[in-house]
Amino acid sequence: MKRIQSLRRFGITGRGLVVLLPYVWLLLFFVVPFVIVLKISFSDIDLAIPPYKPLIEWTAKNALAIKINFNNYAFLFTDSLYLNALINSIKVAFISTLWCLAIGYPMAYGIARSTPSTRNMLLLLVILPFWTSLLLRVYAWIGLLKANGVINNVLISLGLIHEPLTMLYTPFAMYVGIVYSYLPFMILPLYANLEKMDWQLLEAAEDLGCRPHQAFYKITLPLSRNGILAGSMLVFIPAVGEFVIPALLGGPNALMIGRVLWDEFFSNRAWPVASAVAILLLIILVPFMMWYQSVQARESAGAR
Amino acid sequence: MNYRRSYFIITCIAFGFAFLYIPILSMVVFSFNASKLVTVWDSANSPTLKWYYSLLHNEEILDAAWISLKVAVINASGAVILGTLAGFGLARFTKFRGRFTLNAMTTAPLVMPEVITGLSLLLLFVAMEQLIGWPAGRGLTTMTIGHMTFSMAYVTVVVQSRLASFDTALEEAAMDLGARPVKVFFVITLPIIFPAILSGWLLAFTLSWDDLVISSFTSGPGSSTLPMVVFSKVRLGVSPEINVLATITITVVTLMIVAVSLWMARASRLGKAPV
């Protein structure tokens, strides 16, 4: 007891100790790394190991010199490759999010309105692909989409086409891959939201003479707003920086920023440029992350 | 509550599940195909188990699977400890200094693009090596630290939401009866959140087992994980052995999920709390 009291004097409590470990861990391995990325994004590239020059140096006259340069950022804005990749990534992520919403909303709605036993079964079926390797599921689409793949073989044997369609390594393949991989991330928050809906509101609306589609637009849709936002963020934010899907399905010309960063880092060994790309991407994505967090906070406050 | 059947919704659900499952089923079917062309069915010699045989004798894949397994188990165990502490703190302590930061730090990894997390972790490890000499080079340790950092966020969410759906009455009653906080945690709270901890462990295991991007950044020579080997193979096109690997993965995951959900359904029927 005495020991505990003496710890308290230093502001250390039992509660504090519980959160201290995860707190310090995340600070060290999640927050500090971004500071280092920021630092290296201001460094010069160097032909050394590691391939960048130090930012802070002791000069010959024993003075501390801090050399910050914006060359890497200037480079990102002069070579159109980077901005094009960034704009293209945002566009691809946005369109994919809309497709996930269009496919996921009716599914989440249907699951939320089914009988409890069917509901658990369907939920399990949504979660199952999420537990199976993303890489392998993306790989499956290569087999489906390629020139002598399953889709072309089926269409030819049905006599619908005579020449195989070129689908693999096109933007189409990339969209299919992203929508397919991220669909469960859209359905689950939407379902969690719709499940809490008071369906009697819809009956009341109908009794008062509202048509079903009117009731949907006036009641269901506004009430599920937080679910729509949460699901969209869970799809949009990671999709902007997606690497695996464009690398496997998008072909050599698929310009996605995640891929540009990867190539700068692994192929060109241009660590400072890769860091500048990461910082630029973060600046764009952090507002969306904060939005997501506030939506989550509202959702869980509403649940209580 | 009324359960309404609308043909539009039923059609949407049917198409949605077809979209989710046709690619998975196609891999299972073609894993039994004898042809090296993978998607062209060789009806004379199929179905066959020859690719299963060749996968189980592929040293490169087996070695990588062993590395992945080690990393995934250590990662899941560490992530469960960190995630449970964070989830418990966030759910039960409504006010403490740093709550906002902790909340933000456990939400951000869920959506952060992996290329950013991977790059930043690698640069941290390089800087630490220059500064304090640890970690010397990169390998299993750095990879496991990287995996724990993002998978503990998932565990936190699972544990936190389990605790949020549970009121504090039981814990308070035990405290009123004189139990020390640590005892309350182990006797009352831990059994309540055990299903969440179990699914958190499995989730963290799967995330690590499947991860390609963060592993590629944080691994060193001689520590290629299964996804890294699969990725380099798949980049060159389809391979029958990968279909076999996918089929085995799907079978294991399905059995595991069905077993866990049956166990949880049974536990909730026996009067324990619903999941």
Brief rundown of the structure:
With 304 residues, chain A is an all-alpha fold. Chain A has one domain (72-303): MetI-like (MetI-like fold).
CATH H-level homologous superfamily name of chain B: MetI-like
| CATH fold call of chain B | MetI-like fold
Tally the beta strands of chain A.
2
Helix segment tally of chain B: 11
Number of helices of chain A: 14
Largest sheet of chain B: none
Unreliable segments of 5+ consecutive residues of chain B? none
The two chains with the largest interface, and their residue counts, are: A-B, 93 and 98 residues
How much helicity do the residues of chain A have? over 70%
At the first level of CATH, the class of chain A is Mainly Alpha
Q: Quickly count the domains of chain B.
A: 1
Structure characterization notes:
The complex is a heterodimer of chains A (304) and B (275). Chain A is mainly α and 304 residues long. Helices cover 73% and strands 2% of the residues of chain A. Chain A contains 14 helices and two strands. In chain A, helix 4 crosses helix 8 (171-195), helix 5 runs antiparallel to helix 8 and helix 8 runs antiparallel to helix 11. Chain A is globular, with a radius of gyration of 25 Å. The mean pLDDT of chain A is 86. With 275 residues, chain B is mainly α. Chain B has a single domain (58-269), classed as MetI-like (MetI-like fold, Orthogonal Bundle), CATH 1.10.3720.10. Chain B starts with 6 loop residues before the first helix and ends in a 6-residue tail after the last helix. The mean pLDDT of chain B is 87. Classes of the chains: A mainly alpha (304), B mainly alpha (275). The interface between A and B is large, with 93 and 98 residues.
